[in-house]
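tool_call: predict_structure(chain=1)
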Amino acid sequence: MNLSNFRFATDDQGIALATWDMPARSMNVITSEVGEELLRIVEEVASNTAIKGCVIASGKESFSGGADLSMLESFGKEYAKLRKSEGEEEAASFFFEKVRGLSLLYRRLETCGKPFAAAIQGSCLGGGFELALACHFRVAADDDKTRVGVPEIKVGLFPGAGGTQRIARLMPTGDALQMMFKGEQIRPQAAKGMGLVHTLAKREEVVAVAMKWIADGGKGVQPWDDPKFRLPSGKVFSGAGMQIWPPANAIYRRETNDNYPAAKALLQSVFEGLQLPMDLALKVESRYFAHILRSKEAAAMIRTLFLSLGELNKGARRPASVPPNSLKKIGIVGAGFMGAGIAYVSALAGFEVVLVDRTMEEAEKGKALSHKLVTDQVMKGRAKTADRDVLLGRITPSTDYAALASCDLVIEAVFEDPKVKAEVIGKIGAAIGKDCVLASNTSTLPISGLAKASARSGDFIGIHFFSPVERMLLVEVIMGRETGDKALAAALDYVRAIKKTPIVVNDARGFYANRCVGAYIREGHLMLMEGVPAAMIENLGKMAGMPVGPLSLNDEVAVDLAWKIVKATKAAEPQAVDPVQEELLSAMVETHGRLGRKNGRGFYDYPEKGQGRKKLWQGLKELQPQHLDPDAIDKDEIKKRFLVAQALEAARTMAEGVITDPREADVGSILGFGFAPFTGGTISYIDGMGAKRFVELAERLQSKHGARFAPPPLLREMASKGESFYGRFTATPKKAA
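tool_result:
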């Protein structure tokens, strides 16, 4: 056979080996061409009497990352074209058959009459894992790099190539649903325990073990094609089934608030599919998948959380003129919570780290955070004691700025005070070499102002981490007025090395993420003072798609920090401060001493560890000038206010040139502050609604709730011209003019 994505050979025992090794790609992915070649392999195995069976293996470090989502996106474009030329019925039929192709291919593989085995190593995810599930035997490499799973739910889809039906026939229904809803990557031992793989082997032996299974008489029949097969949890309409489905539906609603069509379709596919023979069940799954693939939620999430995220992670904003950096040693000044977290992620990425603070005790305390974080991983079986020793060996605590002399990049992470930072930046500048880039981890202070304390402002840049550093995936890379390409490239290379996603932001008070999330928190404050019950504010915030309510979020970031920001903003721009919010925060902090979670008293009361759950502070009612009737409140409007307030702030940052690329605005909003992922992000929320409709909605809210909902001139212009952000901002300049 003439194959370009596979190597195909048969040994002297008649066992074929199909080695998947796509040229010019670091990872095997499923494309139309791969599907065509795999079908030819299946037909060759099925029809050739000299072949006993076939092992599918990978010629790369990993088995497969899944389907190429740009291929699925192209199906949608073809559908739209056909709909215009041939009509809805013809287009829908074409789309269904296209979408169903992979499912039919996998079904042909598992029913061809010959045994197929999958030899899994590295990542085996999405459509790649669905291919493995269609094989009659699965052996996985028992090592730290191997993972299996179906993460499609994270980009607005669900396993649509037979995954919902095969997983639900291999595992108890509740476990299968939980696995698919979470979309997590599963380690080899857990996968074996769950029945997702049959056996484990050393990486170098997985192919041999798979081939031996065929040689020993492995059968080419799946359990569900055996007439004696029984579902792991029994029939859907049975006593056992009724213990599963009502709670599953309730959990779905609690977790999604009906914002994620893919989650509902997944639930329906499993519920209906388990009542049908396999071929009909797969057809049901394909119908739901075709419907979801055309949904606006899937389109938005695929664009932002797959395409845009991938582009940014690969260096879409990196200056092409700067050669790759060879960063080896990172300096961090300030061993507090943020600095210690930066030290940990840097050491974890393999960098040598110098951690400087005023006293050795403080520097050692900062290093101790790394010890705790790695120990937590060791206790969970995700790291070994030796790994901890190696990581800690990379971190050198110190009180001497001279220890920074050999660093390639130094990050200042001291207290958020311009005078303190200026003093520290001056000391760092005197100690570092001429090729070293100096960065500040600041969340509020303008980078251009801080750069004045540096002798080389062109090599000064902001690298804003979010808390907690080890968990948050986003980093804002902030350009000062004089920041040069060298500093930008170094910052982006570093962020990529620590496996976080960078967005490039031009200098402004609050930068991007804090401005948008500040609008969310402010809206919660103002609703409270309007008389909306606090519990309703919190619940409707989550129903709108945010991870937590605005009051809870304010407690996490600290109520007194919000109060400091309001006071600082008032000093610089008095008109930018809402007096109602100012009154609330003053009462919370100054009058009642409620600082947030950090002192156990904020909008919530926090019990001692292990003493129960947090509860909304009853005293909030006394701070409200009035109390509205909950039944008379327009709940849909509340949800819109939360999202529109943030989207408007994002639009203003685009208009001001703070953010110059809509991809970064969208990715940053989801990774940075959890903006309703089903929308695709703040800018996609506007584009998905259309600028004209969005402006009309904002104006209605403005007339009712005030000037903060006034659309910026840019949005009004876009509405009048029928433009979108993704259509208008096609270029991605490094800096605003």
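agent: Confidence is low (pLDDT under 50) at residues 731-737. Proceeding to next step.
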